[in-house]
Write a structure and sequence with these properties.
Chain lengths: 381, 357
């Protein structure tokens, strides 16, 4: 049998319409930077895609900078904004404790190589950043802060973050927001949030792998990471990937993700897990969360064992956290929410997508109790 | 059967997994991460703890066509093998960490976990054989005697042997490499790992010195007369002749050997070749790989090193200690080593040497 896929937060199937758009674009000749007719023709496709994505994210088309991934967009924003603001004597990078590694690691890199001081914003037990901490910190050291980066929603727990409130607190300090998980799933408007920059990724919404975007406020100039042909406001040189960009726009414009339906399935899953396994703990239960992400702690188990057993039972899910050489580590997100190493390593993330069905959820529920029982028995340490 | 194949990233475990699949078993490949920071114990690609090795194991699993996972056994490995290795040396004994790893990790932590998860056993690339006999499943030497690893498996109980599958026991290493190449496994030509996997550079003495310190102490002869100095007693092994740096020669110019290491007084005792000779040994904490040894003296063989010779002996068990009396005297035997009893090519059991005479 084919496996039940509940790891849509990692990547989600490419939509048929996006595959069609990409396939068509792949046979179309032209470098969008060329001035002749074929060049202008693919340039037109890109600019139309840019407008579509701008509309969907509430930004100007000219604010969209295409990148090779969400990670790249985050790196450009963090390093670029830091370098820009450092010349004004600010070297503090304020990030939340639950950021994706694509934010944490560039921030740490800035600390190691560029003398940045990285300050982590703590989160509550429900996984929401502590705005009082931000307010207090800014009142004391606000003039030292180069930038603030907080994700729109967390990739492991799905917990939404108070970005609007944060931007208000930040005042003139640029705020970057990694919205890779939120885009296309919950209302998101770059201009309404008042952000300086925002990260998007195509493969989380049914577009292709290898294409992302940085939304960067008009008029903000930051140093580039890649230098070359001067594409994308000279911030991201490199021949534009027309087929992927076109497919990205097609995917987001198709609006195939039905938030209400996904939320309903998610809640059905959660309530049944609670019935089947009364000691399971839903992480971020009290917070507003994304429709598709569910993170449970199953006391007395080890995530990597559970993952193997779920995989063996034809259900694909995730431990939700980073791997180093494939070795499962306790999630920094769950640790920041007050978990111990042990309980953090007893957690699984299930993420639902546009294509998830009731039958998928019922199947996952049918195998889960046995997997948890075996996982408990195998947890000998 | 449903089996877990422990895949180190080397050629042997890859072929073992492939053979288990071919035999019709449902196999899942598992690489044991033995250090939370894979570069911590060793750099380079010779050991079993590197990122490259886990990558090689994953590729082998892909080629064989089996699921693959990494199990983090770093804590168990550190506590059960590395710490044991250090504490044994600190007590003046010479441990064998591979044996400890089989006893505590591969056929304990891994096998127990596998069984609890619904698997029937663990497949490894060890060169050893098992046979089904009226007495149950027994452990035997590999056909390729030069590669035989039954010594380091002699710590397995009957229960553990029941869950152990060694598909390579009937083949030579040369043929395993050929078979790996035929199967399209990229690890076919990967060099064998030799020294201790968690000791970088293979410099055991240096590694021990870094962790246990290097306190200068006396080297004395049998009468207690100081004839030299050392910088860390545990870096010596019984029978060692070279590198003693003694300035006082013996009367007849004959060489001296390390006879004894006394960790409490940090003293190394040296003496003549004759004084090194032993004819009997006792071992504690015995493990039987089949029926228990009785008090009745029995003829057999004892082996005291992983690739040492099988020495003819008479052995018995007094209820606490395993005794072996050698037909011919042996030079240089350290406590802490395992004494493994063989009946022909069958492994009878093993114990940790605690006394020699």
């Amino acid at each position: 049998m084919s496996s039940i896929y509940l790891d849509h937060a990692a990547t989600t199937p490419m939509l048929d319409c996006a595959i069609d758009a990409m396939t068509t674009a792949l046979s179309k000749l032209g470098n969008p930077s060329s001035l002749h007719t074929p060049g202008r023709s693919v340039r037109k496709d890109i600019e139309e895609a840019r407008e579509v994505i701008g509309r969907e994210v509430g930004s100007l088309a000219s604010e969209i900078i295409f990148t090779g991934s969400g990670t790249e967009a985050n790196n450009i924003a963090l390093k670029g904004l830091f370098w820009k603001r450092r010349t004004e004597g600010r070297n503090v990078v304020l990030i939340s404790a639950i950021e994706h590694h694509a934010i944490i690691d560039p921030a740490q890199w800035l600390a190691t190589h560029e003398k940045a001081e990285v300050i982590e914003i703590p989160v509550t037990v429900d996984g929401v950043i502590d705005c009082a901490f931000v307010e207090d910190f800014l009142s004391k050291r606000g003039d030292e802060v180069a930038l603030i980066a907080v994700m729109h929603s967390n990739n492991e727990t799905g917990v939404l973050q108070p970005i609007l409130e944060l931007v208000k607190l930040a005042g003139d300090i640029p705020v970057h927001c990694d919205a890779v998980q939120s885009f296309g799933k919950v209302p998101l408007s770059f201009s309404e949030l008042g952000l300086t920059s925002l990260t998007l990724s195509a493969h989380k919404i049914g577009g292709p792998l290898g294409i992302g975007a940085l939304v960067l406020k008009r008029g903000i100039e930051i140093p580039a990471l890649l230098h070359g042909g001067g594409q994308e406001r000279e911030i991201r040189s490199g021949t534009l990937n027309t087929p992927s960009i076109v497919a990205f726009a097609t995917a987001i414009a198709s609006h195939q993700y039905q938030s209400d339906a996904v939320t309903q399935l998610r809640d059905y899953f959660i309530s049944n897990v609670h019935k089947l396994l009364p000691d399971a703990i839903l992480n971020g239960a009290k917070s507003t969360r994304l429709p598709g992400i569910v993170n449970f702690t199953f006391p007395g188990t080890q995530s990597d064992t559970l993952l193997l057993l779920m995989d063996g039972a034809n259900v694909s899910c995730s431990t939700g956290s980073a791997c180093s050489a494939g070795v499962h580590e306790a999630s920094h997100v769950l640790l920041a929410m007050g978990h111990t190493e042990k309980t953090a390593q007893s957690s699984l993330r299930f993420s639902l997508g546009a294509s998830t069905t009731q039958a998928d959820i019922d199947f996952a529920l049918s195998v889960l109790p046995d997997v948890i029982a075996r996982g408990r028995a195998a947890n000998l340490s | 059967m449903k089996l877990i194949a422990a895949m180190s990233g080397g050629v042997d475990s890859a072929v073992a997994a492939a053979r288990a699949v071919e035999a019709g078993h449902e196999v899942i490949g598992v690489h044991l991460a033995l250090s939370a920071n894979p570069q911590k114990y060793r750099s380079g690609a010779r050991g079993c703890c590197t990122i490259e090795d886990s990558h090689d194991a994953r590729r082998a699993a892909d080629v064989i066509g089996i699921p693959f996972y990494i199990w983090d056994m770093a804590e168990e490995f550190h506590d059960g093998v590395v710490e044991d290795f250090l504490s044994e040396y600190a007590q003046g004994r010479t441990p064998n960490p591979c044996l400890r790893c089989n006893e505590k990790i591969k056929f304990a932590a891994v096998l127990d976990r596998a069984r609890a998860m619904g698997f029937d056993g663990v497949v490894t690339g060890h060169y050893a054989r098992t046979e089904i006999t009226p007495d149950g499943k027994t452990l035997h030497r590999a056909m390729d005697i030069s590669k035989d690893q039954s010594y380091v498996l002699s710590v397995l109980t009957v229960e553990q042997i029941a869950g152990a599958i060694f598909p390579l026991g009937d083949t030579t290493k040369v043929d395993i490499r050929k078979e790996a190449a035929e199967r399209g496994l990229a690890v076919a030509e990967k060099p064998d790992s030799h020294d201790i996997c968690f000791v970088p550079s293979g410099d055991n003495a240096g590694w021990l010195r870094d962790r246990l310190g290097s306190e200068i102490g006396p080297i004395v002869d049998q009468s207690g007369t100081k004839i030299g100095e050392h910088n860390g007693a545990y870096t010596y092994t019984i029978g060692q002749r070279k590198g003693l740096g003694l300035t006082v020669p013996t009367a007849d110019g004959s060489p001296r050997f390390v006879l004894k290491i006394e960790p409490v007084s940090n003293t190394v005792v040296v003496g003549s070749r004759e004084e090194l000779a032993i004819t009997s040994m006792k071992g504690e904490r015995p493990v039987w790989c089949g029926p228990a040894v009785s008090a009745t003296p029995t003829r057999g063989f004892v082996q005291i090193r992983a690739h040492g010779q099988a020495l003819a002996c008479t052995y018995s068990y007094d209820g606490t200690l395993l005794h072996a009396t050698l037909d011919e005297a042996l030079l240089g035997l350290a406590t802490g080593q395992a004494m493994v009893i063989y009946d022909g090519d069958r492994v009878v059991g093993s114990a940790t040497i605690c006394e020699t005479n």
